[in-house]
């Protein structure tokens, strides 16, 4: 197994461990910051993003390596200060790409998933996009390429920079003294995730908070304004695929419906949330204008459904580990088939968590696809080589998943006594 796969497995275990610690700490501190189904949805979103990374489902318009080979003016020796330059350059690029994702209608679709949770916790940090299919911010790295920062340095610093953004997605850490003036802290990032008018579209920085202070987007957390988390147009679903593309779908509908040809073009580059006047009047949408009026998305979820959601999440995490184990030797087409199956399965069980009847046909397609794959590969890919009789457990899972989906859709859902919200 290559270094990337090993680091990916370590990263997943690290994130999950700290999410569990935060959950327990919140309970002990009598400040619970997790709702079970919301956390399952967040981690499921993280799985979809990791699968996308594993399968390399992003089109890079201009790679950093190409830029370095053709534009570098200097040849720099690898030393500690080169890593500092690289990290600072990556952070500067992160500020602007993050800011533009918030400021432009089309780009917001790449980022809405990260803000979609109405909770703020370490699990929400893993709500990452699968809709950013094109790597469009390559030009922000051009200064580093021109300076001659080698690709191997970027390859090391970029994942470290990404992982360093995980820890501050929490409500359990207060102000951090002098660090508040240097790095992004939980207090700063709580502001960023809030929909209060005082906080909206502030604190874009990833690591160094001075970018916001220099470019006029800084806002400190106010003692008398508790943050309210989520997005102003509430997503109202646990399904990460729907969240990833719902804003794009709204833009497509608005562009089609408006009578103005000018607006059909402008809608894509206008500020986030802008809609043509005629469409806004004819097709109003519900938007939260007062943060205190937010009603959190909370469809009925019995203790049994919550337990099943956690089982599904565990199964899919283990399957993703299996997919990672296959990276070194499996043909790409096999990895792709496995990844598509996992996408289908995550879509099915998160639709069930929404208590939507469409979970049944998607689960049925998953069952048929899974059975076909077991026959095609004479077992579940390479699982039997790792765990004897592992394919039998996959068969049991597929049948159980179909059965539980039918149960929760047609039996439990119609039983009022079991509709108490838990978790």
Summarize the structure.
This protein has 423 residues and is mainly α. The longest helix has 26 residues.
Protein architecture, described:
By secondary structure, the chain is mostly helical. Helices cover 56% and strands 1% of the residues. The protein has helices spanning 3-28, 36-55, 64-71, 80-103, 105-108, 112-115, 142-147, 151-163, 186-192, 210-215, 240-257, 261-266, 277-282, 303-325, 332-353, 359-376, 383-386, 390-411, and strands spanning 59-60, 134-135. The chain has a two-stranded parallel sheet. Helix 2 (36-55) runs parallel beside helix 14 (303-325) and helix 16 packs antiparallel against helix 18 (390-411).
Detail the topology: elements first, then pairings:
Blueprint: H1 3-28, H2 36-55, E1 59-60, H3 64-71, H4 80-103, H5 105-108, H6 112-115, E2 134-135, H7 142-147, H8 151-163, H9 186-192, H10 210-215, H11 240-257, H12 261-266, H13 277-282, H14 303-325, H15 332-353, H16 359-376, H17 383-386, H18 390-411
Parallel strand pairs: 1-2
In spatial order, strands of the major sheet run 1-2
What is the radius of gyration? 23 Å
Which outline best applies? Answer: globular
Question: How many DSSP-defined strands?
Answer: 2
Order of helices and strands: HHEHHHHEHHHHHHHHHHHH
Strand content: under 5%
Low-confidence stretches: 416-423
Give me the number of helical elements: 18
């Amino acid at each position: 197994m290559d270094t990337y796969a090993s680091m990916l497995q370590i990263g997943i275990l690290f994130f999950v461990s700290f999410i569990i610690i935060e959950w327990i700490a919140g309970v002990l501190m009598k400040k619970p910051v997790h709702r079970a189904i919301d956390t399952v949805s967040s981690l499921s979103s993280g799985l979809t993003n990791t699968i996308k990374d594993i399968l390399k489902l992003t089109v890079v318009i201009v790679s950093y390596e190409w830029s370095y080979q053709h534009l570098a003016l200097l040849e720099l020796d690898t030393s500690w200060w080169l890593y500092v330059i690289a990290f600072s350059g990556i952070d500067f690029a992160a500020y602007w790409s993050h800011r533009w994702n918030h400021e432009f209608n089309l780009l917001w679709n790449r980022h809405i998933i990260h803000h979609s949770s109405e909770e703020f916790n370490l699990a929400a940090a893993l709500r990452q996009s699968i809709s950013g299919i094109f790597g469009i911010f390559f030009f922000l790295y051009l200064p580093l390429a021109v300076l001659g920062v080698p690709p191997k340095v970027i390859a090391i610093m970029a994942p470290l920079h990404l992982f360093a953004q995980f820890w501050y997605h929490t409500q359990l850490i207060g102000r951090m003294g002098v660090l508040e003036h240097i790095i992004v802290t939980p207090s700063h990032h709580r502001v960023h995730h809030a929909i209060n008018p005082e906080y909206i579209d502030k604190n874009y920085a990833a690591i160094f908070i001075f970018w916001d202070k220099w470019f006029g987007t800084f806002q400190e957390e106010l003692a008398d304004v508790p943050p309210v988390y989520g997005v102003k147009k509430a997503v109202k679903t646990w399904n990460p695929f729907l969240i990833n593309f719902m804003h794009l779908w709204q833009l497509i509908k608005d562009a089609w419906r408006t009578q103005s040809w000018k607006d059909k073009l402008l809608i894509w580059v206008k500020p986030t949330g802008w809609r043509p006047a005629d469409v806004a009047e004819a097709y109003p949408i519900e938007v939260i204008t007062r943060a205190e009026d937010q009603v959190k998305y909370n469809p009925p979820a019995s203790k049994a459904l919550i337990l099943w959601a956690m089982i599904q999440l565990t199964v899919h995490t283990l399957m993703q580990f299996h997919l990672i184990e296959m990276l070194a030797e499996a043909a790409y087409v096999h990895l792709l088939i496995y990844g598509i199956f996992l996408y289908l399965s995550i879509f099915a069980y998160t639709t069930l968590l929404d208590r939507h009847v469409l979970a049944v046909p998607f689960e049925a397609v998953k069952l048929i696809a899974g059975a076909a794959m077991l026959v095609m590969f004479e077992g579940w890919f390479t699982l039997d080589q790792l765990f004897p009789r592992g394919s039998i457990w996959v068969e049991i899972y597929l049948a159980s998943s179909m059965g539980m989906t039918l149960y929760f859709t047609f039996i439990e859902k119609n039983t009022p006594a079991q509709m108490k919200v838990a978790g």
